[in-house]
Amino acid sequence: MANDAQSGQVAESAKSSLGDAFGGAWIDQATGRLTVAVTRSGLSVTGADTKVVANSLSQLTGTKSVLDLMNAPAAITSWRVDEQSNSVVVEVNKNVRDAAADQWIATAKSISGAVKVAEVTESPTPLYDLRGGDAIYMGGGRCSLGFSVTGGYVTAGHCGRAGTAVSGFNRVAQGTFAGSVFPGNDYAHVRTNANWTPRPWVNRYGGANVIVRGNTEAAVGAQICRSGSTTGWRCGTVQAKNQTVNYPQGSVRGLTRTNACAEGGDSGGSWVAGSGFGQAQGVTSGGSGNCSSGGTTYFQPLNPILSRYGLTLTRG
């Protein structure tokens, strides 16, 4: 069975030596052997089988380049050079195929007989990552993402009520608040749509992402850092636990006090401690002061949030 790396080297060598007679190359998944497509009979390639085809790879690539200049309707999901079938494959979502898609396909086929059509049942959408400390938007308000959990993330309860729609850092629809408590506590669970993938990351703002390894609670006096979409990455120490804070909206119990600063929009963001800051601690609730003159900031510990909603923290 051919080694994948060796096959790649043979294919590149064949492409260089055959020039316009090169029609592409692929590894047969059943045999593991490399096949090189050629446009003229009698050609051979050391270390590979050969197959005579009608179109060179440069012809197929040229056809695709023309399609790249065409404005495709929504039902056309993709197009690609398929070396194994010696064609340019256009995929169309059969569930939403319409006259505009048929006209686009007809034009594509008129460009080259190498164009083939394949029907699919879904259309692709962009995929985005969930990362602690990134901005989240609720209507005209902004908060920060806390920690990724299976199927979504946690943040502060005062950021939104159950049913509140939320968008991500890029203003793309992200999901809805599945549960929220404030006052009394200050936590919420956001259930995200399939376009967003939970990652075990916290934005260090200017540095590499922090990898969340666990959720062991830090002791009083421990160094702690937080991430938020307004003031980025800020650090301090744990000053007290189980503090009750009396906000104008009502008191919140069980908060942890720190001397790390925060400002509006940082709410809901991640707090981390431990080696490499890999231990998730909680989400920003509120405080006093600012990051110019200094301040006191409180966070809602993470473990009660996970317990309340039966959530599993995303870990690296």
TrEMBL record:
It holds the Pfam family Pro_Al_protease. Signal peptide: none annotated. Keywords: Disulfide bond, Hydrolase, Protease, Serine protease, Signal, Zymogen. The keyword Aminoacyl-tRNA synthetase does not apply. Residues 55-110 form the Peptidase S1A alpha-lytic prodomain domain. Belongs to the peptidase S1 family. This is S1 family peptidase. It comes from Lentzea kristufekii.
